[in-house]
Amino acid sequence: MRPRDEHKELLIRQKAIEMIVKEGLDGFGVNKLAKAAGVSPATIYIYHKDKEDLITNLCIGVAEKMMAFSLRNFSPDMDFAAGLKVQWHNRLHYFLENPLDMEFIEIMRYTNFYEKVSQMVTANFGSVLRQFMRNAEEKQQLVPLPFEVYWSVAYAPLYQLIKFHTEGNSYVNSSFVLDDQLLEKALQLVIKALKP
């Protein structure tokens, strides 16, 4: 058995993500990936037992990277407004710095491969955010809500603004740019909506 080569493994992962974003899952295959990465199909099987294992590992890897990034300088003990601000800024910067990862996760979110990611996110990331919510509720900084309602109000506006920014347009503005001032205004509206 050949030894693992981190550079090849990273190249395989990157090419796989690029291919899935560009061509979708229907256009994705191990032989095609091997050719794009400049390796033999056997090399791919050093790292992954099959195509499904590769795709699942890609999903988990991207999600773990995204979660770690979004938790930078964040603690569930933070005051609600400060903690949400850190989350918004971290998420925005991750999206802007890793657009291919974000497109990949959006594609995968609606497949059966995302099930393991969802379980991992719920177990790891969800527990941190639920603790943040409970702490904010105890401090009377957040109206008590089901987690799903909280998530929708707290983060959907950010994701929509990022989408407008990355696509370069909105419904009425063909050159929308999300700057710090607009981000802060939107964040303050969300905080206001979630306060008791």
CATH architecture of the largest domain: Orthogonal Bundle
User: What is the total tally of β strands?
Assistant: 0
Q: Which regions contain 5 or more consecutive residues with pLDDT less than 50?
A: none
Termini separation comes to: 61 Å
Into which percentage range does the β-strand content fall?
under 5%
| Succession of helices and strands | HHHHHHHHH
> Mind summarizing the main beta sheet?
none
Structural class: mainly alpha
CATH fold naming of the largest domain: Tetracycline Repressor, domain 2
**CATH top level of the largest domain?**
Mainly Alpha
Q: What's the total helix number?
A: 9
Q: Tell me the number of structural domains.
A: 2
User: CATH homologous superfamily of the largest domain?
Assistant: Tetracycline Repressor, domain 2
Helix content: over 70%
Mean of residue pLDDT? 90
Identify the overall geometry: globular
Structure summary:
The chain is mainly alpha-helical and 196 residues long. The protein contains nine helices and no strands. It has helices at residues 6-23, 30-37, 41-47, 51-70, 80-97, 99-108, 114-138, 147-167, 180-194.
What does this structure look like?
- This protein is mostly helical and 196 residues long.
- It has two domains: 47 residues, Homeodomain-like (Arc Repressor Mutant, subunit A); 137 residues, Tetracycline Repressor, domain 2 (Orthogonal Bundle).
- Helices cover 72% and strands 0% of the residues.
- The protein contains nine helices and no strands.
- The longest helix is centred in the middle third of the chain and has 25 residues.
- The model has no long low-confidence stretch (mean pLDDT 90).
